[in-house]
Input
Amino acid sequence: MLTIDLSGKKGVVLGVANHRSIAWAIAQALDEAGLQLALGYQNDRLKENLDKLAPLLKQPPLMVHCDVTEEETVRQAFKTIGDAFGTVSVLVHSLAFANKDDLSGEFLRTEWEGYRLALQVSAYSLLPIVRCAAPLMEANGGSIITMTFQASTRVFPGYNVMGTAKAALEHEMRQLAYELGPKNIRVNAISAGPLDTLAARGIHGFVDMKRVHAERAPLQRNITHREVGTTALFLASELSSGVTGEIIHVDAGYNITGL
Ligand SMILES: NC(=O)c1ccc[n+]([C@@H]2O[C@H](COP(=O)([O-])OP(=O)(O)OC[C@H]3O[C@@H](n4cnc5c(N)ncnc54)[C@H](O)[C@@H]3O)[C@@H](O)[C@H]2O)c1
Output
């Protein structure tokens, strides 16, 4: 019988802001499978949310401060994780940010500072994080998962500079899969359909986007947080040992439609 048992292994999940975060759904699925977790928080305010969520996990998580706009916190977080865990098998990068003004109106008006910030947090950040995490994976191999959206290749009004960031992120995912493959470190992305989260609420027209997804997707509904969590669990496990450099759509099939 095939089962997913990650007990004895360690993982890092970055991007839990609250109970609606996709990263939280992923953390829950990984925890259920026995993975010991480290959770990264962006700032003290969000750590308070994590303090409330942590007791819901089977194993108490290690908490680390990790703000990707301050790279020293990334290095320090992985130093703490390395000291506590020794090795890491799973890394989840579920981070994004853009200024609200850059997620509505004309993309053409995006200025450098907003563009730079969106790309730094939502795409570039994968590099310093993986730079710190990969050495912890080298002994036994590992699985790295990042979160993307179909706006990387198609136009979704309001998504604007975040579409640019997702295109960059998807490229990074493939490039890293190529570079880290010889070390048996796999790198994949999940392209999720719309889910109500803090980040999603900042996107102008999100509610309409969600409604249209449910109307037009082959499964004729929206996806659930849990469905992203269990797909991440598959990618974290040996069941996906031959999968790297891949974008798995968890979108009720929306991406195959032409209408
Ligand atoms: N919600 C959706 O509909 C949807 C669909 C597809 C992909 N995604 C992607 O999923 C990922 C998670 O987003 P979410 O929807 O769960 O929203 P969320 O707001 O719950 O998560 C975003 C996370 O990014 C973190 N973050 C922002 N700036 C940071 C910084 N400087 N340093 C460290 N962390 C920082 C926040 O603290 C938060 O935890 C994002 O990459 C998002 O683009 C979301």
